[in-house]
Design a protein that fits this description.
Layout lengths: L8 E5 L10 E3 L2 E3 L6 E6 L2 E5 L14 E2 L16 E2 L8
Parallel strand pairs: 6-7
Antiparallel strand pairs: 1-5, 2-3, 3-4, 4-5
């Protein structure tokens, strides 16, 4: 999805989120209809946003949790100061 070992995302409450412009949706995942870039993901009460898609991404965000750690490359160390999601794989 990112072409990298990392994905820079942040979660907000849906009430803090506003979309302008056209967006396509597939299974609660939103994409740019022009280029196909993944933009955000809606979940119960929240939205996960890919930070690189924001015109003005906040610079003071620090990692709080690592997910998909079961797929961590063996040469990558854990991110210091973060929790690890022990339920890394989707249930559906």
């Amino acid at each position: 999805m990112t072409g990298s070992a990392y994905s820079a995302t942040a979660n907000w409450h849906q009430s803090q989120f506003r979309v302008t412009g056209d967006v396509e949706t597939y299974e609660r995942r939103q994409f740019c209809p022009q280029c196909g870039s993944r933009l955000f993901y809606l979940f119960d009460g929240g939205v996960e946003i890919f930070l690189g898609t924001l015109d003005e991404a906040p610079c003071d965000i620090k990692p709080l949790i690592e997910v998909w750690t079961v797929r961590r490359e063996p040469w990558l160390l854990p991110v210091v100061g973060t929790a690890s999601n022990t339920e890394d794989l989707p249930k559906d």
